[in-house]
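Tip: read the tokens left to right.
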């Protein structure tokens, strides 16, 4: 008779056969021979059976079809080290009907506690979870992503590999835990899943309707396919298809579902009417009052033209967000801040609009009155077309409807490479902005990736004509031990994009980065270690072309390691020299001593170069019921307020607490401070604490409360180069001067939400948001309500059967 301890040891030692776990599911005689595919033995070409009959998605694999399904075993560890058998055994079952793909999971857990919470959609990163990658066009470049936690809570989205796998340490951080490109979980699909925790681990049952995804048009199809499992107690990522970290592509190492036949998507027709009612409050001459706005009634339509081509249309959509963008710290005033797209209409098929340098950024379409898009594949070409008319309030005249036309075409080259073109056009009366470009990703030798892009823009803006290029070229080597990234990127000062996102124009930079990685042996305290040395230079675009000296010079040393149990540590040493940017200080003046009290000023001129020496440390705990991250940077850096040296302190910290399976508390804190090197006084400081409470009543219902505080202060500006002379801001249009006096703001944001969302597209939201102000920072007792608002939103998804 086998003991429980012996059974656990046997379970840990092998995953190539069904574990002999005493608490495992009872054996059942299969109705048909069940074929097992062992990933570690490279049995990755799977022929799943096509079956019929009813299956109830209840989280229990007790229907006869599961005994006839293809059985996938033999997982390997991928992160933090690759090429070793997975410590925890996993079984996956695959079969399909004419209308859907069915997936089952039995995850055995012999080494720790299963981490399973009732969570909101797409918020299961702190959970044990299993991920399915369906590359329905079998191109090794893009895939639909479906994730489930042990209770069947869903996360979904898309994965597009546009560059080398993410296997290097970031600035001051440990190497990426996954060692691969991460999915974009923005898009939501309609599918079914349910799971439950068992004495031996957990079990999940999944149904993915074919009408929720796109796929090839052939009668017989092969799909790229892989399964990964994330184990929370260890922090390990396991992969069914053996995958090496020494590769340019993770998707390219997937297995294959072969011989799929008689797939019927049926009529794909989704109609999604919606209505939104808002009431806004603010201060007026009659005191604080509310205005009830006219209800916004709109509708969305999704039509599957073919198996691989989808048409979306919308009229008067509600593009409000149920959670406002979190405030971000800005480290360089010349850099614009990026906020991700969250609006449902744009998220469907968003992966088709992916382009290097974010030359397509749909948040530029602020409030369209109508829009349409076509995404899919035509004659082997990936096609994405978008047209929209924006609200007149976004036009220069206030009366035109700015019109957007966006086209993105891509074609595969060989097994891993791709070529693409794009065109964007924004027309606003006599004003316009047009961008055309081409880009290429070339993978060769298994480890090397070349990315290249060239684009040009033409802009007519208030009678001024602008035209300029953008271009970049990079070479990556993603070896297991040694890797590098060599890149150059350049943006002409006249390059403009009103349909994309450019953080900073008139910039050229060169990066030469080298990485050395060491992967530890199984069970070692240090599971991986990476050291990265990067040499970087920044130029104004035309100074680069003229062969002149660079504006900024940087030498970065980064170290990162992952320790047993999921801890990550990072450290960095940055030596930099920043050059003076006269354009940033064009409106600065300094006060000089005058005669008889007269004001005498001189144009501000900063010191030519400022040397920097920064030190960085970071730590991240294992993810679990209580987890945290912390990033701390300090040293000598540039004081952009006055263009002088400063002692800087930057902190970014997060904490995540799961006290129960239904309650989630997430907090973050951002801090930055600049102290003058001359006398130690503080010239600028900002703090942003944020806390979010969520209570998940059921999988479909949750309550959210978000509070955020943003306090900023700036001292009266002076120029130490001119003996501490005061700084003025000069307005050239009026010829007036404004003293750069001390100022501060203390703003509080409060947001509350009730959400009911049984499936994507069917929602009921009731929310409240308020912007508060107080004269003394963090006093928290003397608030002044600047504005607030209530909103209700109701939409329903009608789906043709």
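Filled-in amino acids:
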């Amino acid at each position: 008779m086998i003991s429980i301890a012996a059974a656990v040891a046997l379970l840990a030692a092998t995953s190539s056969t069904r574990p002999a776990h005493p608490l495992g599911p009872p054996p059942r005689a299969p109705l048909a021979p069940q074929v097992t595919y062992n990933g570690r033995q490279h049995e990755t070409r799977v022929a799943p059976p096509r079956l019929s009959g009813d299956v109830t998605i209840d989280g229990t694999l007790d229907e006869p079809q599961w005994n006839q399904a293809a059985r996938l075993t033999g997982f390997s560890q991928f992160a933090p080290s690759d090429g070793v058998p997975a410590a925890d055994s996993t079984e996956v079952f695959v079969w399909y009907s004419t209308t859907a793909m069915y997936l089952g999971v039995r995850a055995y857990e012999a080494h720790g506690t299963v981490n399973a919470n009732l969570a909101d959609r797409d918020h299961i990163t702190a959970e044990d979870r299993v991920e399915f990658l369906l590359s329905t066009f079998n191109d090794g470049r893009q895939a639909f992503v479906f994730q489930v936690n042990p209770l069947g809570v869903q996360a979904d989205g898309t994965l597009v590999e546009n560059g080398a796998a993410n296997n290097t340490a970031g600035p001051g951080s440990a190497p990426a835990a996954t060692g691969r490109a991460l999915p974009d979980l923005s898009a939501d699909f309609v599918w079914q899943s349910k799971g439950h925790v068992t004495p031996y681990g957990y079990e999940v049952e999944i149904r993915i309707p074919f009408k929720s995804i796109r796929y090839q048009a052939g009668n017989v199809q092969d799909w790229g396919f892989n399964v990964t499992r994330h184990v929370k107690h260890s922090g390990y990522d396991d992969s069914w298809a053996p995958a090496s970290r020494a590769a340019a592509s993770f998707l390219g190492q997937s297995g294959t579902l072969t011989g799929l036949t008689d797939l019927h998507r049926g009529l794909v027709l989704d109609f999604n009417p919606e209505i939104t009612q808002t009431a806004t409050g603010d201060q007026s001459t009659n005191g604080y009052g509310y205005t009830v706005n006219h209800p916004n009634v709109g509708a969305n339509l999704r039509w599957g033209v073919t198996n691989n081509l989808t048409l979306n249309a919308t009229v008067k959509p509600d593009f409000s967000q149920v959670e406002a963008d979190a405030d971000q710290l800005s480290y360089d005033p010349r850099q614009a801040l990026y906020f991700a797209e969250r609006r449902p209409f744009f998220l469907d098929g968003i992966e088709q609009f992916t382009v290097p340098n974010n030359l397509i950024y749909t948040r530029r379409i602020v409030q369209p009155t109508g829009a349409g898009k076509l995404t899919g594949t035509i004659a082997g070409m990936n096609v994405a077309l978008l047209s929209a008319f924006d609200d007149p309030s976004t036009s220069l005249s206030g009366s035109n409807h700015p019109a957007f036309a966006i086209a993105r075409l891509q074609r595969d080259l060989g097994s891993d490479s791709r070529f693409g073109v794009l065109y964007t056009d924004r027309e606003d009366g006599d004003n316009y902005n047009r961008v055309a470009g081409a880009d290429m990703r070339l993978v060769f030798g298994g480890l090397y990736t070349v990315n290249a892009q060239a684009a040009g823009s033409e802009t007519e803006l208030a009678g001024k004509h602008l035209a300029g290029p953008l271009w970049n070229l990079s070479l990556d080597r993603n070896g297991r031990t040694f890797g590098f990234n060599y890149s150059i990127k350049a943006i002409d000062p006249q390059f403009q994009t009103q349909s994309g996102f450019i953080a900073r124009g008139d910039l050229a930079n060169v990066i030469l980065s080298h990485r050395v990685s060491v992967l530890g042996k199984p069970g070692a305290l240090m599971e991986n270690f990476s050291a990265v040395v990067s040499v970087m230079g920044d130029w104004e675009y035309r100074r680069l072309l003229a062969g002149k000296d660079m504006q900024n010079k940087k030498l970065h040393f980064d170290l990162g390691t992952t320790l047993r149990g999921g801890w990550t540590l990072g450290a960095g040493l940055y030596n930099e020299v920043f050059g003076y940017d006269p354009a940033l200080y064009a409106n600065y003046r300094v006060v000089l001593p005058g005669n008889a009290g007269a004001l005498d000023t001189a144009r501000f001129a900063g010191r030519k170069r400022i040397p920097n020496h920064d030190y960085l440390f970071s730590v991240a705990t294992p993810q679990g019921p209580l987890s945290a991250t912390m990033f701390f940077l300090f040293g000598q850096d540039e004081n952009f307020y006055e263009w002088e040296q400063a002692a800087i302190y930057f902190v970014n910290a997060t904490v995540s607490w799961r006290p129960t399976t239904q309650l989630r508390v997430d907090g973050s804190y951002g801090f930055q401070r600049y102290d003058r090197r001359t006398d130690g006084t503080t010239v600028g400081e900002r703090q942003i604490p944020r806390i979010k409470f969520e209570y998940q009543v059921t999988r479909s219902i949750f309550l959210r409360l978000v509070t955020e505080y943003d306090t900023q202060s700036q001292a009266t500006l002076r120029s130490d180069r001119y003996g501490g002379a005061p700084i003025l801001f000069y307005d050239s249009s009026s010829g007036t001067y404004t003293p750069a006096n001390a100022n501060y703001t203390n703003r509080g944001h409060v947001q509350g939400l009730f959400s009911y969302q049984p499936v994507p597209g069917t929602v009921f939201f009731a929310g409240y948001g308020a912007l508060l102000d107080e004269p003394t920072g963090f006093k928290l007792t003397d608030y002044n309500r600047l504005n607030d608002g209530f909103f209700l939103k109701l939409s329903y998804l009608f789906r043709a059967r």
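The chain has four helices and 46 strands. The radius of gyration is 28 Å.
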